[in-house]
Design brief:
By secondary structure, this protein is of the alpha+beta class. The chain is built from 7 helices and 5 strands. It is globular and about 50 Å long. The N and C termini lie far apart (38 Å).
Length: 199
């Protein structure tokens, strides 16, 4: 039985122990992505989000690219722990790459000059919502995921490998898979310090 929304919100963590064992069909994963891209809001209905889903050998290739990029900048004596971390992402079933289309944002800046300086921020806010919708939906389906940011290190190679438009700017990477280890319990600041209600 699938989780309800609030349970999925509560159970969503950063899972670093994940495996390649599938917990649902690739068609369901595709539907998660399509529903998120179609229905997640964006400023001025700009629909600037772009998403790439990598499964199987394509997922493995992404983390090979990331590992080799890091090998160039991490001292050899420290690379062992870095490699272990990257391998943990590669151990997953797939990765979701989140992009924002700069061309869409630039067009909005031209069309609505009063908000010109706000559109990059609006874009990232929408991307964050897309990431959260996908992350929570993957949790509902039984996957564990985390959010990574190797953007500048891998963006050029990723675009070359998968023939991605230069106007798409990489925002984050979300490896996911069947959880193999439970994350630490979430710690919460008191809600009375974080919420004000006036009625």
């Amino acid at each position: 039985m699938k989780k309800d929304f609030y349970t999925a919100v509560a159970d969503r963590h950063s899972f670093y122990g994940i495996s390649k064992e599938n917990v649902t069909t690739d068609e369901v994963i595709k539907e998660v992505i399509e529903q998120a891209v179609k229905n997640t809001p964006s400023a001025f209905n700009s629909q600037s989000a772009r998403v790439v889903l990598l499964l199987g050998k394509y997922h493995d290739k992404l983390w090979d690219i990331t590992k080799e990029a890091l090998r160039k900048i991490v001292p050899a004596e420290q690379f062992g722990s870095t490699e272990e971390k990257i391998n943990s992402f590669g151990n997953g079933y797939g990765t979701v790459l989140f992009f924002e289309d700069a061309k869409v944002i630039e067009n909005l800046q031209t069309k609505f000059p009063l908000y010109k300086d706000n559109f990059p921020g609006f874009s990232l806010q929408s991307s964050g919502m897309h990431q959260y919708v996908v992350w929570t939906a993957l949790e509902i389906e039984g996957f564990g995921a985390s959010l990574q940011h190797y953007n500048e290190l891998i963006e050029a190679e990723v675009k070359k490998e998968w023939d991605i438009s230069d106007s798409w700017k990489l925002v984050s990477q979300m490896p996911f898979g069947k959880p193999t280890a439970q994350p630490d319990e979430k710690q919460f600041e008191p809600l009375e310090n974080r919420i004000k209600i006036f009625k």
